[in-house]
């Protein structure tokens, strides 16, 4: 939803020059930011600029084009959010945290938020695939229900007016497209006389309508009585049944998302049309040559399906996150009420718990972005450092606690697999997928290689530090095998051994407690310190490597104050509630994962590196794809690198610190497969990112390597202890 950039004006000495530079620097660099104004190089080379432009502005140089990347935003809060996206360690968030000005929205988005009461001149043919799907899914049975209710109203006599209304609505809902429902005004004299008609009326040359043959003063009383009786019959027999039907249609259409126009149609019918007096509701077919009657238009629908409703938001929350929120309530109720699995099995509860993590991750990200955008740098840094990894840490800690209580080492191995899967997925899959999708729209994409180099250096440091205890144990540990067989039947021949591992607890654990454990604690202290140094380097002393500048340019209509979706207190409450629900869902996931681990034929390695590692990162993947589609690959790459760095430099040290106060089976010694996969991924990523540009082919290479590693994990035997 990019606003139309029609003549932006700059608060500078030469507004004409500023607007020219803003437009043509974006065209030269072919980079569109969150609002389409990224400037990277001078806008004057005759070989690059269009000829018609250079004839008028050949000697004009925009200084901001040479030095910095300029971002434009509607207000100060949105500008702060855009600036935070380019800060190392801050959560990258694509969606707006403030309400967009209505005049800046595109016509497509404006149509999404319409109330289906606008009559268009010529909407084309109404026979479309989406409308036919409506007829098959909702139209036929909803129309049939109206016919049944109309028959009931006719039988009651007093409900005849409502029977006529239901008959008209039956024809309307069978195919509502190209038809209109209006609220018309009925003259008082006609309302009074209408109930007193006793026979055929005479024609009046002046009014052109029927004139009642006879009436009496008692007609007013009789009309009111019959009208009240009809209303009572309608509210008791007809209206409740139709409200239930429209509610079912509304919920179903809303969950299907692209059928949200049908949901609006049903909701507006139940809330307004069915509560109006029947004589004030007019249903008619809208023809192009027909002049609409005077009166309020209640409903006018042309299409049942709109594929752009994936952009729809409710109070700043995407419609997908809104639809998945009831899933969280269902998961919590089933998980804690049906503790003996009488209603559902453990596998279903585990799946529901994992799916519930996705919307909760979205709400946590939205809350963090809202608080950071409305606060100063210190508050934003604290919130991002505290809650940035809360999703993953919640699951890891609950899994370790359950493994410690049951004395099962398998949970610790699952946590290690999930940590490795997050690292490998964010290094290979996230940037690779963004390169592929962004490369489909843009032939070649460029990114800030300097900022990517900082993240790459931290990744090398963190991977080396995390796997240092593993390499140490390989060198000094004692290889112990559970079972060995002599293949050649010769005492000096070859032996085939199974379940081999390096024993660190020999001689009463001298090697582990005297050498490996101090090394683990040392690494766990050095890695967060390196992370803080990286923050200080990128945010304080060398912040110029990101070349970010919030421009003074503003579009028409951007001079008003910001209207935030979530205030700071509201965002804080949502953040705490989402974190609490996340803890409950993580507890349910770890509670019901045991049957899957024991009964599944798939390697526990594969379950850890795929499902448990990547499901919590789905909102981040969606943000990265959206940035890549806008040719802003720098943020797509930073999303993956930032998560990978936080896994090694924050999450793993926190888990080590947790094991000090709550002893578990978690040790910072990984299997060979984890070590080789992580190191190879980091080396390949640095090789791809060296030149600062990429295309869909390089992204395909990263994605294919990721799938090869997944195949290795899929066919690998389960870790020892599982």
UniProtKB/TrEMBL annotation:
GO MF annotation, one: calcium:proton antiporter activity
- Annotated Inner membrane component domain ranges read 129-179
User: Under which name does UniProt file this protein?
Assistant: VNX1 protein
One Gene Ontology BP term is: intracellular calcium ion homeostasis
Q: Name one Pfam family in it.
A: Na_Ca_ex
How does it sit in the bilayer? Answer: Multi-pass membrane protein
**Which keywords does UniProt give here?**
Antiport, Calcium, Calcium transport, Ion transport, Membrane, Phosphoprotein, Transmembrane, Transmembrane helix, Transport
GO CC terms for this protein?
endomembrane system; vacuolar membrane
> Which regions span the lipid bilayer?
132-162, 231-262, 317-336, 348-365, 377-398, 418-440, 452-472, 519-539, 571-590, 602-622, 643-662, 668-689, 696-716
Location of the Sodium/calcium exchanger membrane region domain: 350-467, 571-713
Location comes to:
Endomembrane system
């Amino acid at each position: 939803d990019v606003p139309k950039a029609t003549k932006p004006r700059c608060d500078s000495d030469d507004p004409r020059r500023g607007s020219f530079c803003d437009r043509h620097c974006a065209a030269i660099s072919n980079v569109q930011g969150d609002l389409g104004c990224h400037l990277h190089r001078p806008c004057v080379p005759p070989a690059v600029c269009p000829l018609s432009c250079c004839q008028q502005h050949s000697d004009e140089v925009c200084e901001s084009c040479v030095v910095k990347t300029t971002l434009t935003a509607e207000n100060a809060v949105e500008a702060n959010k855009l600036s935070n996206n380019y800060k190392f360690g801050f959560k990258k968030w694509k969606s707006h945290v403030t309400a967009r000005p209505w005049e800046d929205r595109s016509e497509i988005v404006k149509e999404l938020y319409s109330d289906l009461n606008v009559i268009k001149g010529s909407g084309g043919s109404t026979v479309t695939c989406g409308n036919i799907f409506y007829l098959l899914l909702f139209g036929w049975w909803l129309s049939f229900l109206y016919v049944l209710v109309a028959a009931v109203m006719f039988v009651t006599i007093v409900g005849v007016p409502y029977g006529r209304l239901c008959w008209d609505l039956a024809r309307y809902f069978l195919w509502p497209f190209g038809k209109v429902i209006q609220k018309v005004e009925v003259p008082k004299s006609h309302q009074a006389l209408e109930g007193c008609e006793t026979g055929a009326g005479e024609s009046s040359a002046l009014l052109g309508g029927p004139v009642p043959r006879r009436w009496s003063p008692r007609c007013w009383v009789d009309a009111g009585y019959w009208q009240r009786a009809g209303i009572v019959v309608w509210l008791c027999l007809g209206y409740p049944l139709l409200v239930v039907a429209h509610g079912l249609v509304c919920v179903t259409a809303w969950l299907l998302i692209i059928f949200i126009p049908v949901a609006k149609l049903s909701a507006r019918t139940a809330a307004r049309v069915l509560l109006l007096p029947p004589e004030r509701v007019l249903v008619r077919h809208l023809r192009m040559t027909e002049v609409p009657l005077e009166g309020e238009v209640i409903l006018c629908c042309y299409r049942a399906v709109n594929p752009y409703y994936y952009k729809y938001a409710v109070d700043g929350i995407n419609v997908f996150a809104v639809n998945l929120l009831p899933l969280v309530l269902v998961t919590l109720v089933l998980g804690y009420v049906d503790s003996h699995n009488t209603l559902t099995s453990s596998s279903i509860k585990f799946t529901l718990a994992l799916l519930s993590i996705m919307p909760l991750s979205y709400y946590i990200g939205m809350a963090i972005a809202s608080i950071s955008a409305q606060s100063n740098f210190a508050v934003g840094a604290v919130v991002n450092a505290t809650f940035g990894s809360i999703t993953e840490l919640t699951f890891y800690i609950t899994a370790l606690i359950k493994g410690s209580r049951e004395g099962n080492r398998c949970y610790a191995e699952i946590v290690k697999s999930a940590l490795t899967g997050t690292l490998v997925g964010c290094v290979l899959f996230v940037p690779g997928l963004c390169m592929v999708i962004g490369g489909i729209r843009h032939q070649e994409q460029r990114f800030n290689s300097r900022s990517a180099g900082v993240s790459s250096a931290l990744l090398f440091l963190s991977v080396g530090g995390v796997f240092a205890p593993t390499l140490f144990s390989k060198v000094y540990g004692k290889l112990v095998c559970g079972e060995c067989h002599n293949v050649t039947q010769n005492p000096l021949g070859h032996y085939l051994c199974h379940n081999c591992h390096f024993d660190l607890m020999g001689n009463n654990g001298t090697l582990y407690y005297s050498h490996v454990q101090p090394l683990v604690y040392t690494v766990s202290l050095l890695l967060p310190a390196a992370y803080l140094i990286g923050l200080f380097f990128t945010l304080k002393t060398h912040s110029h490597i990101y070349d970010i500048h919030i421009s003074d340019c503003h579009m028409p209509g951007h001079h008003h104050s910001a209207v935030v979706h979530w205030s700071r207190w509201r965002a804080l409450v949502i953040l705490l509630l989402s974190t609490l629900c996340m803890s409950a869902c993580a507890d349910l996931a770890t509670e019901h994962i045991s049957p899957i681990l024991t009964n599944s034929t798939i390697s526990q390695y594969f379950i850890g590196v795929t499902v448990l590692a990547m499901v919590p990162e789905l909102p981040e993947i969606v943000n990265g794809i959206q940035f890549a589609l806008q040719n802003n690959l720098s943020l797509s790459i930073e999303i993956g690198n930032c998560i990978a760095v936080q896994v090694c430099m924050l999450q793993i040290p926190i888990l080590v610190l947790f094991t000090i106060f709550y002893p578990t089976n978690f040790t910072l010694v990984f299997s060979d497969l984890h070590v080789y996969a992580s190191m190879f991924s980091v080396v390949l990523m640095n090789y791809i990112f060296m030149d600062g540009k990429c295309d869909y082919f390089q992204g395909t290479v990263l994605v294919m390597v990721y799938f090869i590693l997944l195949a290795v994990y899929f066919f690998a035997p389960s870790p020892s202890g599982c």
